[in-house]
Amino acid sequence: MKLVDFHSINTEQKANMRELPGKLKEIQRKKIQQIIKHAYETVPYYNNLFKKHNVSPNDIKDSNDLHLIPVSTKQDIINAGDSIISGKYQKTDLNVRSTGGSSGTTLVFYQSYRDGVYAGVSYDRARMENGFNPLFNKIVFIGPFKAESQHQLTLKEKIDYILKLRRTPILIDMADNQVKTESLLSQLDYDSIKGYPSFLYLLAHRVKSGQLKMPALKHIFTASEMLDERTREFINQTFNADVKDIYGCWEAGCIGWECEKHEGYHINIDFLALQILGTNNDSRDYGKGNLILTNLNSYAVPFIRYQSDDIVELTPDLCSCGRPLPLIKSIMGRRDDFVVLTNGSKISPAGLLVVMHDFSNNVKEFQITQEKIDELHVRIVLMDITHQTRTEDEIKSGLETHLNDIDMKITVTTVPVIEKTRSGKHKSILSRI
Ligand SMILES: [Zn+2]
What is the Å distance from ligand 1's center to 325 Cα? Predict the structure, then answer.
């Protein structure tokens, strides 16, 4: 039964890649109608929400009608408690998922096996469209895994992988100590890697300086954090590779992925419907704004018109690669990453990262935390502490110049080590407000 699920979903996603954009919209339209009807009929939270706003499932014919449904924030879903779970499912049969989040609130929700397969396949597509073959390539996933070291797959998981004709990924917890992580990375057999840009950047640094040896990499995928151009270039150059950034979240699976053309992120529109919340809280198909997503495959806990709090730009332009999936032109910032200013505006972390990378010759690790609305604290780990004061001063003035005339107190401190956050995330920029 479970294998059938995987194969039918995997076949479905592959077939969809060969469809024309019009046919994909038709697939999306049917899926929208199904999930809306399901949510209305079996999920108390959505039933109440629809009724309160006089929306009937029959009003929603396609993505153009989705704006009739009010947006739900992460906090709304948290407040909904168990009323967000479909009555068609037993809570005890579902897998628990949690949207880490290094700051702010954590959303815990439930996923059926089938919903989870869809999410997994959405990521498989991103990798396979980029030439990764799960049967032949061997990949290391570096992430905030709870396991103390290399994740030990259960027998059930191993059988699952064998039946799906896939090689099991090697899981490495990035919260582990550096010596252990690097000894695994230098000894294990793999040809592909997936991880946070900041973590891969650190690895690239270690490789470039000759302190770490890693095998030649055929595929490098980044995820979970903003990837700025300088980080991308440094990783590309060091590993002689072409990094592909993949954009997703627990609530939606893979939302978008880069292809070899790097013209944006191909949106999995057969799995999702995306919109933008404009400045007047109006819904738009294109432009910049808060990404609102509807997951078309999440039936145990539906995410309908869910506010992701990521700021992206949707474009009507298609990619020159010829794939039928439309594009997110750019991701300007991911939730938790933004620094909010005293005047209420936000700045993207990418600019701060670029400033910090000017100091990468001596700064091994760094973390910028916004402790108060007008205070940024930068902690750095130096390779050579000879010029500690000068480096600290230069970083301070570099950030001040970048922030221009924004009134913000910046402090820079050298520390021996930067501890990982509780969830194990290694975030370069954290906002605690
Ligand atoms: Zn493309």
Answer: 8
Name which of 107-111, 226-230, 334-338, 390-394 the model is least confident about. Answer: 334-338
| Range(s) of the domain holding residue 350 | 339-431
| ∠ CA 367-370-372, rounded to 5° | 155
Residue 262 CA to ligand 1 centre (angstroms): 7
Q: How far is ligand 1, taken at its centre, from the CA of residue 267, in Å?
A: 10
Range with lowest mean pLDDT among 264-273, 287-296, 322-331, 404-413:
404-413
Question: Please, are residues 142 and 193 in contact by the beta-carbon 8 Å criterion?
Answer: yes
Residue 149 has a pLDDT of 42
pLDDT the model gives residue 106: 73
- CA–CA dist 365, 427 (Å, integer): 11
Distance from Cα 101 to the centre of ligand 1, integer Å: 30
Q: For residue 103, what pLDDT band results from cuts at 50, 70 and 90? A: very low
User: How big is the CA angle at 327 (ends 325 and 332), to the nearest 5 degrees?
Assistant: 150
Question: Over 80: is that where the pLDDT of 316 sits?
Answer: yes
| Residue recorded with tokens 């153009």 | 64
Q: Which of 305, 333, 361 is the last residue of a domain?
A: 333
CA of 17 to the centre of ligand 1 (A): 12
83 has a pLDDT exceeding 50: yes
Distance separating alpha carbons of residues 92 and 94, to the nearest angstrom: 6
CATH of the domain at 130: 3.40.50.12780
Query: For the chain, what's the residue count?
Result: 433
Q: How many domains does the chain have?
A: 2
Asked if 424 and 319 sit in the same domain, the reply is no
Neighbours of ion ligand 1 (CB under 5 A): 259, 261, 319, 321, 323
* Same domain, residue pair 308 and 353: no
